[in-house]
Design brief:
Radius of gyration: 26 Å
Shape: flat
Largest sheet: none
Strand content: under 5%
Number of strands: 0
Length: 211
């Protein structure tokens, strides 16, 4: 049953995504090579984005294919890829929202040359690098779907070690934040003071006087 599922995933998701992802990567290379005149003469930002989408493209293909060796033995790199995808998309769409606000909400009477350059940069970045976010979305949602699949498999008696274990990662960091959160210590101190001092002396003294 699991082999049949893997074959279906390969045919209906793996092969199509291989073609689509290569088209997206080709768009980045073509745009930078032809219209940006070879990455604007070696612009670090443009070259870094091309290198990033190249790495993410092949990691997304391996993730969509669910290659057993990759899924089991490269979880650390998959986690880095997933976290970078979340961060990249968050920053990208935050800048896109700012660009939309710049066009339709902000008071244009206050605009100067810097606002104009910002708008041009955001629009240019959106056209050139939007395909990178699509690659990232595939990685994000594929990893999340694998979490659900692994949980479902465990309920049916199958122990499949292909998910990242994002729940365990979130639980770990939630525990770390609980440990370093000063409010938790204040709550603990207030509870201890209430139990050991207020209840013991104040409430017991009031109950004694009422007698």
């Amino acid at each position: 049953m699991l082999v049949f599922r893997w074959l279906l995933n390969l045919v209906f998701f793996g092969f199509p995504w291989t073609f689509i992802s290569q088209v997206m990567f080709a768009w980045n290379v073509l745009f930078n090579a032809k219209w940006n005149f070879l990455w604007a003469g070696g612009n670090v930002y443009l070259m870094a984005n091309t290198a990033y989408v190249y790495i993410q493209t092949w990691m997304s293909i391996a993730t969509v294919y669910e290659l057993p060796i990759y899924m089991r033995h490269f979880k650390f790199f998959r986690l880095i890829s997933w976290c970078s995808a979340v961060l990249y998309n968050f920053l990208f769409f935050a800048s896109l929202i700012d660009f939309i606000l710049l066009l339709f909400v902000y008071d244009k009477k206050t605009f100067d040359i810097f606002y104009l350059m910002e708008a041009m940069m955001f629009g240019y970045n959106f056209v050139l690098h939007y395909p990178i976010t699509m690659v990232n979305w595939v990685i994000i949602f594929k990893e999340l779907s694998l979490e659900l699949f692994s949980l479902s498999a465990k309920r049916h008696g199958h122990n499949i070690h292909i998910a990242l274990g994002l729940y365990d990662v979130f639980a770990f960091w939630a525990t770390i934040f609980d440990v370093i959160n000063p409010l938790n210590y204040l709550k603990w101190a207030r509870k201890e003071i209430y139990n050991k001092l207020y209840k013991k002396y104040v409430m017991s003294d009031n109950s004694y006087k009422s007698r």
